[in-house]
Amino acid sequence: MNEILIIFGISILYLLIICYFFNFFRIFKNLFILIVSLFILKIGIFKIYNFDQDFLGYFLLLGLFISIKIHSYLFYMKSPTLHLSEIIHTKKLINKNEIKYFFLKYKFIQMYLNILIKQKILTKKKNFFYLEKKGYFFYKFYEIFFKIFIR
Amino acid sequence: MSGIIYLVFLFTIKIILIKIINQLTKKLDILHSYSTFFPIIFFLTINFFYLKLDTTLVFKIVIIYIVYSYIFITIPGGFASSVRLKILSHFIHKNGLKSTDLFKKINDEVLFENRFKRLINYSIIRKNQHYFIKSNKIKFFLNFIKLNKKIFNIIQRH
Predict the structure, then answer these.
(1) In this complex, which of B67, B95, B99 lies closest to A67 when CB atoms are compared?
(2) pLDDT tens-digit profile of B29-42?
(3) Under DSSP, is residue B131 helix (H, G, I), strand (E, B) or coil?
(4) What's the ipTM?
(5) Predicted TM-score (pTM) of this structure
(6) Gap between the Cα atoms of B94 and B81, Å rounded
(7) CA-to-CA distance for B18 and B33, rounded, in angstroms?
């Protein structure tokens, strides 16, 4: 049980670090170095306490790192469904048009397009958008996984 | 090695359950919650009566399964709900798309209608005076996210 507590402790340290240096660790290279460093820390702590270095421990730690990173998107990204839910929950509006008015104040599609361009998944030339090879594989990766595991 | 075998077993049951539930309902929250918790209950029951594994190992297996189930919601599960992937779907097998054509197919109004319809089907009803969130799950999730953002801001400030 102590091994699990150490793994959770390292995960909390990871969470605190990525929250404190949020913009720095949005860059994948920096995040990768942090993850490798924390794995080395885990190996070191386990060696000191003579705990078994089993595969499940590494698998759990990696899973916690990935989940925390996914969860951290909530800190700066707005989801359309949650934004809509928030409007309905806080504003107690009478009709759909009023709800729509508040929803449309936030430009989701433009935000996502900007992210896709920044990530070089799409490019924009004059008034045309083009899908990059990276974007094609990004889309296909999710489509294939969806078809295999869900549909 | 045995821990990995049990994890493979759990995820196999999960995938089978997802495919069955997906035929019965398109509600993603039911899909993910039932496919996560039923295998755990099944595994714990089998462990209690037959396997009798070490408690630490059982705990590790269950935690790993829950953590990777959460990742599963985003990676294959994200295809159904992701706006980015929806945008990209309009580009597949096309050699570029004019911005006006793209915004005709997908824009904030279309997004609003889609999400509003989803919430109508899942969790909000119209009462006499105003719309409100019926689902306690969503209310809880909204408060949970608010709390997360507060903690994040506190960490950032210090």
Answers:
(1) B67
(2) 788 889 999 999 99
(3) strand
(4) 0.82
(5) 0.83
(6) 22
(7) 10
What is the residue-level pLDDT of chain A in tens, covering all 151 positions? 788 899 999 999 999 999 888 888 888 899 999 999 999 999 999 999 888 888 899 999 999 999 999 888 877 778 898 899 889 888 877 788 899 999 999 999 999 999 999 889 999 998 899 999 989 998 998 888 888 887 7
Contact A57, A3 (CB under 8 A): yes
Rounded-to-integer distance, Cα B24 and Cα A149, Å: 16
Paired tokens of A57: 């421990």
CA distance B99 to B18: 37
A133 lies within 8 A of chain B by CB: no
Tell me, what DSSP letter sits at residue A121? Answer: S
Q: What are phi and psi of B110, to 5 degrees?
A: -60, -40
- Which tokens hold the place of B106? 């997908």
Kindly tell me the burial class for residue A118, based on how many C-beta atoms sit within 10 Å of its own C-beta (0-12, 13-18, 19 or more): exposed
Enumerate the residues of chain A whose CB falls inside 8 A of the CB of residue B80: 146, 150
Task: Please judge whether A70 and B74 are an interchain contact, meaning their C-beta atoms are less than 8 angstroms apart.
Answer: yes
